[in-house]
From TrEMBL:
Alphabetized InterPro entries for the sequence: GHMP_kinase_C_dom (IPR013750), GHMP_kinase_C_sf (IPR036554), GHMP_kinase_N_dom (IPR006204), IspE (IPR004424), Ribosomal_Su5_D2-typ_SF (IPR020568), Ribsml_uS5_D2-typ_fold_subgr (IPR014721)
Protein name per the record: 4-diphosphocytidyl-2-C-methyl-D-erythritol kinase
Highest taxon of source: Bacteria
Pathway(s) served: Isoprenoid biosynthesis; isopentenyl diphosphate biosynthesis via DXP pathway; isopentenyl diphosphate from 1-deoxy-D-xylulose 5-phosphate: step 3/6
Enzyme active site: K16, D141
Gene this chain is encoded by: ispE
Binding site for ATP: P99, V100, G101, G102, G103, I104, G105, G106, G107, S108, S109
Amino acid sequence: MENPINPVWRLPAPAKLNLFLHITGRREDGYHNLQTVFQLLDYSDQVSLSLRDDGVISRTNGLSDVAPKDDLIVRAAQALKDYTGTGYGANVGVEKLLPVGGGIGGGSSDAATTLLGLNAMWQCNLSHSELMSIAATLGADVPVFVNGYSAWAEGIGEDLTALDLPEVWFLVIHPGVFISTAKLFSSEVLTRDKPILRIRDFPDADSENVFESVVRKTYSEVDKSLNWLSKYSTAKMTGTGSCLFASFESLQEAEVVLEKVPDEWSAFIAKAVNTSPLLKALKLYADKK
Ligand SMILES: C[C@@](CO)(OP(=O)(O)O)[C@H](O)COP(=O)(O)OP(=O)(O)OC[C@H]1O[C@@H](n2ccc(N)nc2=O)[C@H](O)[C@@H]1O
Ligand SMILES: Nc1ncnc2c1ncn2[C@@H]1O[C@H](COP(=O)(O)OP(=O)(O)O)[C@@H](O)[C@H]1O
């Protein structure tokens, strides 16, 4: 039974797609400068948070093959605690729906949800820019989820301009392959000198995901599933893979293709959203307080 004095907050951690992904250069610290469009999806992990007054951060549930101290929900809670010096602690947990290592940003989104949720629950009242700075220390993909809007992104992914994108339906296929982001960024054959695009060039510019050709050569299952989805619509890979996606004007059109996805791959349909469902959910909890 729910404790009415110390309720559990259940907050969404939505997925993202990279509608295109270019590398424009490499920085001295080894990170790469990117240009990308982050499309947020109404399809989420669920993060649960409850207050502890003993200062302890404890993971209640999460991925069994990720140690609690390495889990991005625990790392995000610890980063906020270290920054603010709060005496509070929290029970943190995540029910995973988003495939791990699929390029749809699940771990990063879990971290962002934990950060924003605990900032409110612990009444830290950090500014947006402070939260964005903490987010960037947790991973290049975390700031977009803290910001909460589909966006054009530059830098390592933290320099964001909100975009108003068509709210279409995406069919996303996970071909059952785990791809390490760090490993792909170190590939010798990666194109790292794409010309700089202007925001207004999108979506008409000649854009691609520079990781796609590299992944296709190494992971035959990704190549096979991209070929399969391309029979129905323009199919692309997101992030460093392994998920791929195609857009449809209506839910019904996406459902027709979903039905045909071979059993060997998992797949889901998600609505494109311009505003993160997290911002809406946080507002509900804030209004209740
Ligand atoms: C490629 C992208 C595109 O959205 O997404 P994913 O495919 O991982 O979802 C992101 O840039 C990934 O962001 P994220 O997964 O948070 O990466 P991080 O944990 O910060 O970095 C993992 C490793 O990737 C490399 N890295 C990451 C981002 C970047 N701009 N340049 C890099 O060189 C670094 O080697 C780093 O050690
Ligand atoms: N809460 C979490 N959810 C998913 N992955 C996590 C989490 N915490 C840590 N990780 C680690 O992050 C890596 C992949 O993260 P994920 O965000 O799923 O993939 P991607 O960066 O491809 O979108 C994995 O190596 C996983 O072990």
